[in-house]
Amino acid sequence: MNQNTKLTRIREHPREATGQSPDELITTVSDILEEMLANLRISHCSVDFNQELLEAPLVEARNRGYALSGVHSLRHALSMGVYLTSTMYGHVTDNAQRTYIIFYIMFMFYVDDTYFGKSDRENGLLFFISRFNQNQPQEEPSLTAFATFLREDTATVFEPIGGGIIIASSLNFINGMILESSVSVAQISPFAQGFPYFVRNKSGFAEACIILAFPRDMPVIHYAQAFPEMLYFVLDLTLRPSDIMSFYKEELVGESENLVSLLAAVTDSKIEFFQNFKICGSGSPCIPVTRHEKYEVLRHLSRAVSLGHQRTLQILAGAPLAREVYLKLAKGYVCMYISMRERYKLDELNL
User: Fold this and answer.
1) Domain count, the chain
2) Res 281: pLDDT
3) Counting beta carbons within 10 angstroms of the beta carbon of residue 204, is it exposed (0 to 12), middle (13 to 18) or buried (19 or more)?
4) What is the pTM of this model?
């Protein structure tokens, strides 16, 4: 079977292309996720959230003039901002930073939920960055509010380096969404080994997620050396949707436009894997893909996440405060996904 035929089969018959029956899929994915959670030493997650946590942010949103009803309403996104802040950033106690995190996640969730998959003609994000750079109104009110928040609040709450990383990460996310909306597995050249990671890294805001976790007055240099490993950990547990935690759900419905499917589709994907967790020139981890089967790609991704986690702890051994923050961040992110059991069908995997 030639590669073009395989690409078509992955798109039209995803379960047949991976060579798995439903029972095999459940067993394989369950084993992979259990192994990863054991390596991360995460066995118990407690999510403390109630509607009362939404009251103060809702008042603040009204005071800021954010749209909370109508076509461009941020109301649902605000609820998600409060929920995700509680689950992922529950360790953050600074009020200004916590408020920033809530609204930042709100805007990012709104952008993702509203504009992902839209064509260029429909996509209000197409000129977002050029308008942002020129301080011009955006396509619609909530995008204008997002641009203002990003420009003004970031500079107020965070020191220059951290704030700069947040803004750059956010604008990369916008570009990545536009790019990803125009890409499908069927269009990928079988020789484009680096392209899946290029699109994947652009279509998330992992750098910002890391900065948000650390005290805003902590110099970035205190944890900068561990940034590549933390970045990889966050990339593979938090982007839309998480390639690892949501793989089972996506495979059930035949979703193929994700990192696992893209890596399974390219040829000559076997990349040298060094025991010291080699990082490729593009900043992407060098992952070995021994077979063009999605579950093999998933297994390698999950093991590399575990390895990156251990490397981060080793690097931060001399910075106990930063190490403690990272451990809370890591557990918070994993527990956030585990708490969304129904969405990711984790009960079917006995997790």
Assistant:
1) 1
2) 42
3) buried
4) 0.75
